[in-house]
Amino acid sequence: MISVSVEKAARTLPQLIRDTLKDCEETVIVSDSGSVVLLDQAEWENMQETLRLLCDRKSLTALIEGHKNRDRGSRPDAISPGEAFYDL
Fold first, then answer.
1. What is the rounded average pLDDT of the residues 67-85?
2. Cα(85)–Cα(53) distance, integer angstroms
3. What contacts 31, CB < 8 A, 6 or more positions away?
4. H or E stretch including 58?
5. 21: domain range?
6. CA-CA to 25 of 20 to 30 Å: which in 4, 55, 78, 80?
7. Contacts with 11 (C-beta within 8 Å, 6 or more apart), sequence order
8. Sign of the Cα pseudo-torsion (5, 10, 33, 28, in order)
9. Does the pLDDT of residue 85 top 90, yes or no?
10. Which residues contact 66 (CB under 8 A, 6 or more apart)?
11. Half-sphere exposure of residue 86, counting CA atoms within 13 Å on the CB side?
12. What whole-number distance in Å separates Cα of residue 66 and Cα of residue 64?
């Protein structure tokens, strides 16, 4: 993760965007008012989806159970797409 001042970010925004996308690395833009993070939109969407799943008790329980089964070497029973994506 790199940090740049808001002044430098304003001068070099197109290059900062290109570098952030190319390097798959976040860029912190720092100002006197605070900081913001510039990152690839796909990464942001992935983080949002992860948070949504972790906040959904049913999804979180299924994830934990899946990890336990994997650790035991078990294979999951087949489920329908409707069961897998019940909340969409």
1. 81
2. 11
3. 5, 6
4. helix 57-72
5. 2-42
6. 55
7. none
8. negative
9. no
10. 76
11. 9
12. 5
HSE-CB at 76 with a 13 A cutoff on CA atoms is 12
| CA–CA distance, 21 with 26 (Å, rounded to integer) | 9
What does the block give as tokens for 47?
A: 């983080």
Measure the CA angle with vertex 63, ends 57 and 68; round to 5°. Answer: 125
The H or E element spanning position 31 is strand 27-31
CA distance 12 to 15: 5
Whether 72 is in a domain gets the answer: yes
The single-letter code of the amino acid at 70 is R
Same domain for 61 and 38: no
In a domain, 50, yes or no: no
